[in-house]
């Protein structure tokens, strides 16, 4: 198991959305394929939205740039 995987498991166990966002973004950078990168980046984006994190728009733009998200779909904060 990689150190990122172990850290992700710990962040999930702790319910730490901000840590999960950062770790998934880091995993996207280290991914071997564009599909794996998109998988991790999508998770990073979702956790950023849930946390109301300032990085959400940048993560959204990365998904757009990768052709994985449509630019007309603006990030929306979660319903509370």
Give a brief description:
The protein has four helices and no strands.
Record keyword descriptors for this entry.
4 helices; flat; mainly alpha; single chain; 80 residues
Explained architecture:
The structure is a single chain. Helices cover 68% and strands 0% of the residues. It is mainly α and 80 residues long. The termini are far apart. It has helices at residues 3-14, 17-30, 34-51, 56-65. The model has no long low-confidence stretch (mean pLDDT 91). The protein has four helices and no strands. The longest helix is centred in the middle third of the chain and has 18 residues, at 34-51. The radius of gyration is 12 Å and the shape is flat.
Topology record:
Elements (H helix, E strand, L loop, with lengths): L2 H12 L2 H14 L3 H18 L4 H10 L15
Helix pairs in contact: 1-2, 2-3, 3-4
């Amino acid at each position: 198991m990689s150190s990122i995987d172990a850290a992700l498991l710990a962040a999930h166990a702790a319910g730490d959305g901000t840590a999960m966002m950062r770790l998934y973004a880091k995993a996207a950078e280290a991914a071997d394929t564009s599909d794996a990168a998109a998988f991790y980046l999508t998770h990073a984006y979702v956790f950023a939205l849930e946390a109301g994190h300032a990085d959400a728009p940048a993560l959204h733009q990365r998904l757009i740039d990768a052709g994985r998200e449509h630019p007309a779909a603006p990030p929306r904060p979660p319903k509370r």
